[in-house]
Amino acid sequence: MAQPNYFDQFDDAPLTTGKPTNYFDQFDPTPAEIAAEAEPEPGFGERTMDTLSSAKTSITDELMGSETDMDTSNMDPAMLEAFGAPTTSALERTQGSVADTVGATANVVIDGGLSLIQSILPDSWEDSVIDFSRSAWEAVSQSPIMAEGIEAAKAGMKNYNEWAEKNPEWAKRLSDVVDVSSLGRTAGIKRAGVTPEHIKRGRTAGLKQKKNIRNNRVAQMNEILEPPKGTGEGKYYINQDKWYKPTTYDGSAWEREVARELAKVPDVKYGGTYVDNLNATRTRSLEFRDKLDELVASKGAPVSKEKLLAKLGNKINRMDENLLTGEAREKAIKMYEHLENVVLKDFDGTASGVLKARRELDNWVTGQRKVWDSNFENASGIALGTCVMS
Amino acid sequence: MRNVLNETVGDAVGTKEVKTLLNRQHKLLTAADKLDAKMVKEADTNFGRLRQQAEELLHTKFPTTPLAVGATAATAATLAGPAGLGTVAGLFGGYKGAKWLASPQGKQWMARIVELADSYPALQPEILALSQISDGLGPKESE
User: What is the number of CB-based contacts under 8 A between chain A and chain B?
Assistant: First the structure.
């Protein structure tokens, strides 16, 4: 028989008595407390985020319906207030201070584009607009074929499809700026209980998803094009929740425009190699070259070599006024000399000749790049015109 | 400079379409310039890693000046065989940058480096990465 020990005295004790069986049990929460914890009161942070979220909705609704091309989550609070949004708290300001330049640019572009869009499209189409930039809609407004396409879409999807079949290239361009297909889909819905508000919400959700995908792609392109540390024109901000990526680069307005253009090239892949992405970019650029050659050869007016050189000289002189250009002016002068003495030596005085000269200049500059040198890249980039300051 | 030339073309032709195309192409060329610079850097980094790994593998330091490369190759190649120290040192000393990989000499050099992967399997990942860059490089057309 086993010897009795100290723990035997607890063998017959009930396992659950409803009363504290040891010292720490007294601190256990009661069932009522557990239930109360299940749905806690929103904390300060959550309440603040709710406020910010509602502010975003109200601003976008007020400006251009419930869907815009503008990402207000990164917009400067001062800009939000300028739009008539509720005043934000200190925490909201911290959350919104990520990209003050984003807000400023988005404002100018959207404001300019919106008034133009309103003059071209019926109000009911506003939710189907994909691209709010002024430049995109200027291209639409100045093309009679595009005007035909818009009129066809107003008359119904059947008419639009007929137009699109005849003008596939123009239809593709139109679909880049307005989601024509969403107009056709929603127009046919006549199910019981479905109100115009339901249709609008569904369309908005679909567009929002599409825009999110596009914005993500632009962000990916920004990352691909991120310049070496300390050489870009944009700003860095700290990622508090991403230990594996401590900073994110927020490019300048021009760099974001470049990223947006790159996002339109489907063969440029986020996870792809630089060389593959470079080839995809060049392929698209060559497509543009062929179109340009065709257009310029058929429509070009005479160009004066003297006036062209004077214009270039003025541009170089103005670089003196900008302290940020560094060695760029010296590079620009070398480019000017090369243009004058080599590229434009046998200039034929046509627009095609200027286009040819630009290509030769591009090739000449690229040919100078034997090794990676950030100083060379920056200076020649500014001189050649890859930055807004030139 | 590119902007001025593009503007001149746009003004001469006088259509919005040409200006828009030139503007879009200008953005693509800017992106291509940036990608090109990154590709060059990536290739050089790859080559640097490959060289370092090869040095560690062979317990040696490869010469970097052309004269030293020649001397090493001449004295050691015959002693160590086709994938020996001298050949490897000569190969690594012959790299002339990412853009050079697109030239016939560069392609030839890359083919010899790929052969090296058979003798030194540990170098295969870096060699594969470098050869992917080399394969993607083609003759550049005027855009």
Answer: 185
Contact A134, A114 (CB under 8 A): no
Per residue in A214-230, pLDDT (tens digit) is 778 888 898 889 888 77
Rounded-to-integer distance, Cα B84 and Cα B82, Å: 6
- Interval B3-45: pLDDT, tens: 788 888 888 887 788 888 888 988 998 899 889 888 888 888 8
**Would you call B27 and A286 a contact, using CB atoms and an 8 Å cutoff?**
no
Chain A positions in Cβ-Cβ contact with residue B35 (cut-off 8 Å): 224-225, 274, 277-278, 281
Q: Tell me the residues of chain B between 52 and 111 that have a Cβ less than 8 Å away from chain A.
A: 97, 99
Residue that the structure tokens 């050949």 belong to:
B87
> What tokens does A54 get?
């509602």
CB count in 10 Å sphere of residue B48: 12
What is the secondary structure of B1-26 as a DSSP string? -HHHHHHHHHHHH--HHHHHHHHHHH
pTM value is 0.52
Q: Which residues contact B21 (CB under 8 A, 6 or more apart)?
A: A288, A291, A292, A295
In angstroms, the first-to-last Cα distance of chain A is 99
Q: Are A123 and A95 in contact (CB under 8 A)?
A: no
- Contact of A390 with chain B, judged by CB distance below 8 Å, is answered with yes
DSSP A116-168: HHHHHS-GGGGGGB----HHHHHHHHT-HHHHHHHHHHHH-HHHHHHHHHH-H
Interface of B with A in 6-25 (CB under 8 A): 6, 8-9, 12-18, 20-25
